[in-house]
């Protein structure tokens, strides 16, 4: 068994590198055509993961929309939808959250001891598996190990920038898919797809380009592998 799933990080950004507006209302940056690609990507993965802000503020369904793709999975003895996974410090989800209500899908929350016992019990009653890390943050290495043990070989991460950065700086991402929409949103404080404190040029994370595809909607899809050697300097820089 692998120590962790193979991880693809998927993002939709504007031509000026933004993943949302300054008001962070979760605007749609993907075109309908790109959403079909994301649907296929979800269908190829065993689980789909998002960070706490994306989970609460965007309220994503994280399910496969195409009936054909779901039927293909059933034919291959897979569940209709990948497992939904949330990483969240204080797991207070409304019961009508789409993470909980849309399915059928297994749901897993990795949280910390900052979540009240009553909130954990409520999530469990709603059919969510909850794993708790003692301390300030979810231990991502052990969360990924836990997912491997549950049979997750391939994991799709769908943001946001904080979770993306936490995974990248720990050398936990294998591939990055970036859809660049023919749009500009601007806004100095609008989010980009990697948050955190940032790196200086000497410690920049290095990527290897696999493909560039011009899309019929005027967008571009870039696929990169994350270079393993680039992480040595990053981890040293961040004291990991
Ligand atoms: N265009 C796209 O492809 C795309 C995709 C997804 C999201 N977005 C956008 O990105 C923005 C959200 O990004 P974001 O960076 O603010 O949030 P995020 O990455 O979705 O969530 C970050 C939060 O998740 C929790 N978290 C992350 N790692 C954790 C860990 N190891 N342990 C415990 N909790 C952890 C923390 O919550 P606490 O703060 O509670 O500690 C952290 O602040 C939104 O504007 C959204 O629309 C865009």
SSE layout:
Layout: E1 6-14, H1 32-44, E2 47-51, H2 52-58, H3 67-75, E3 83-87, H4 98-101, E4 107-112, H5 117-125, E5 128-133, H6 140-149, E6 154-157, H7 161-169, E7 175-181, E8 207-214, E9 220-226, H8 230-237
Parallel strand pairs: 1-6, 1-7, 2-3, 2-6, 3-4, 4-5
Antiparallel strand pairs: 7-9, 8-9
The structure holds NADP nicotinamide-adenine-dinucleotide phosphate.
Report what the structure shows.
Residues 232-240 have low confidence and may be disordered. The chain has helices at 32-44, 52-58, 67-75, 98-101, 117-125, 140-149, 161-169, 230-237, and strands spanning 6-14, 47-51, 83-87, 107-112, 128-133, 154-157, 175-181, 207-214, 220-226. The chain is of the alpha/beta class and 240 residues long. The protein has a nine-stranded mixed sheet with strand order 5-4-3-2-6-1-7-9-8. It binds NADP nicotinamide-adenine-dinucleotide phosphate. NADP nicotinamide-adenine-dinucleotide phosphate (NAP) binds next to β1, β2, α2 and α7.
Notable features of this structure?
single chain; 240 residues; alpha/beta; nine-stranded mixed sheet; 9 strands; 24% strand; globular; disordered C terminus; binds NADP nicotinamide-adenine-dinucleotide phosphate
């Amino acid at each position: 068994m692998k120590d962790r799933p193979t991880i693809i990080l998927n993002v939709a950004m504007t031509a000026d590198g933004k993943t949302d507006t300054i008001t962070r209302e979760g605007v749609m940056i993907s075109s309908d055509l790109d959403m079909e690609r994301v649907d296929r990507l979800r269908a190829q993965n065993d689980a789909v993961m998002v960070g706490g802000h994306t989970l609460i503020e965007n309220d994503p369904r994280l399910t496969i929309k195409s009936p054909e793709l779901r039927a293909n999975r059933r034919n291959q003895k897979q569940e209709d939808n990948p497992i939904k996974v949330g990483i969240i410090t204080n797991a207070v989800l409304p019961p009508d959250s789409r993470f909980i209500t849309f399915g059928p899908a297994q749901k897993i929350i990795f949280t910390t001891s900052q979540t009240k016992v009553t909130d954990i019990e409520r999530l469990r009653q709603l059919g969510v598996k909850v794993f708790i890390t003692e301390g300030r943050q979810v231990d991502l290495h052990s969360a990924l190990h836990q997912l491997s043990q549950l049979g997750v070989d391939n994991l799709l991460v769908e943001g946001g920038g904080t979770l993306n950065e936490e995974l990248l700086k720990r050398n936990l991402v294998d591939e990055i898919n970036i859809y660049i929409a023919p749009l500009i949103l601007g806004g100095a404080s609008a989010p980009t797809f990697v948050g955190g404190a940032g790196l200086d040029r000497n410690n920049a994370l290095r990527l290897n380009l696999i493909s560039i595809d011009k899309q019929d909607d005027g967008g571009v899809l870039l696929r990169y592998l994350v270079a393993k050697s680039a992480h040595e300097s990053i981890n040293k820089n961040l004291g990991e």
